[in-house]
């Protein structure tokens, strides 16, 4: 039996809610075979990022070669890549292997406020990775940095999307999770603006929402859905994962990636604290 496969190139989150761990859980839940090339180990939890240890460029290349030579991914999601040399290796490998359906989440700052991108790497991200993407998925602060304009209204989101959509060949999805009123995301694609309306779910546990959305989009593209359908289904998935109301950790906790999975465990594994 064959299955569509997706590769994530991102950082590890030892607390399991974001990064590689969120990506692989999302891929499993969305019916694709997940693979990972680790760019960095992070020591983090729901309250913050306390350490980063990067992969060497050589070892990242080694991981990518192993993957592409063997199980060629139907889509690739790129998350945290914090240094210029790692960005160069990724761009080089993706071009060499003619990777398709590339989703770039330009991760700059974690939900907890910690920086995940070195200053000089921002330019490399812009010039080397964003041009390879079928879609880029900045949140509002990232879209402000990339477009150079301040975003304080839906009109400004449209302006930033159009600046980025004109600059890069792929689609641009600006995520509205940082808008406190609702959770509407804006897609600029092939000259059209398309709003994806999302009801804001009252849940403070949003660790890893960005990683999860981009992995769900990559999974859907791998399965052959078009761009709009892939985003629509990814939003449905993330709303379900947030709405499931998992509550773990002392800070902004993780979502329930497995909310829609038939689990092997038949006992009810959820419980309320006394
Ligand atoms: N409270 C919420 N209710 C419903 N949808 C939400 C909520 N918060 C975020 N989302 C959705 O989650 C997705 C990710 O958006 P967000 O802006 O949070 O990304 P991000 O900032 O990159 O995430 P991260 O916190 O992982 O860095 C978007 O589709 C957004 O609309
Ligand atoms: C490893 C990693 N990637 C991305 C994010 C952004 O949420 C995070 N917190 N950690």
Automatic annotation (TrEMBL):
Domain of life: Bacteria
Residues of the Pyridoxamine kinase/Phosphomethylpyrimidine kinase domain: 13-256
Keyword set, alphabetical order: Kinase, Thiamine biosynthesis, Transferase
Pathway listed: Cofactor biosynthesis; thiamine diphosphate biosynthesis; 4-amino-2-methyl-5-diphosphomethylpyrimidine from 5-amino-1-(5-phospho-D-ribosyl)imidazole: step 3/3; Cofactor biosynthesis; thiamine diphosphate biosynthesis; 4-amino-2-methyl-5-diphosphomethylpyrimidine from 5-amino-1-(5-phospho-D-ribosyl)imidazole: step 2/3
Keyword S-adenosyl-L-methionine: no
Protein family: Belongs to the ThiD family.
Name of the protein in its database record: Hydroxymethylpyrimidine/phosphomethylpyrimidine kinase
């Amino acid at each position: 039996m064959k299955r569509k496969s997706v590769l994530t190139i991102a950082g590890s989150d030892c607390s399991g809610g974001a990064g590689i761990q969120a990506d692989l859980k999302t891929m499993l839940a969305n019916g694709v075979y997940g693979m990972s090339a680790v760019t960095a180990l992070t020591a983090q939890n729901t309250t913050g990022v306390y350490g980063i240890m990067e992969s060497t460029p050589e070892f990242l290349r080694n991981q990518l070669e192993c993957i592409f030579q063997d199980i060629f991914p139907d889509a690739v999601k790129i998350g945290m890549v914090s240094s210029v040399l790692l960005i160069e290796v990724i761009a080089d490998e993706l071009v060499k292997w003619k990777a398709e359906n590339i989703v770039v989440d330009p991760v700059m700052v974690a939900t907890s406020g910690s920086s995940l991108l070195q200053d000089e790497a921002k330019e490399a991200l812009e010039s080397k990775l964003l041009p390879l993407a079928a879609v880029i998925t900045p949140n509002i602060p990232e879209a402000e940095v990339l477009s150079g304009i301040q975003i304080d209204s839906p009109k400004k989101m449209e302006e930033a999307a159009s600046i980025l959509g004109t600059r890069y060949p792929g689609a641009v999805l600006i995520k509205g999770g940082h808008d406190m009123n609702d959770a509407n995301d804006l897609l600029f694609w092939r000259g059209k603006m398309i709003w994806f309306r999302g009801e804001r779910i009252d849940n403070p546990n949003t660790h890893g929402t960005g990683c999860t959305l981009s992995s769900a989009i990559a999974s859907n593209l791998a399965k052959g859905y078009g761009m709009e359908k892939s985003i629509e289904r990814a939003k449905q998935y993330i709303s379900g994962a947030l709405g499931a109301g998992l509550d773990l950790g002392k800070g902004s906790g993780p979502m329930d990636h497995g909310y829609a999975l038939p689990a092997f465990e038949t006992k009810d594994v959820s419980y309320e604290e006394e």
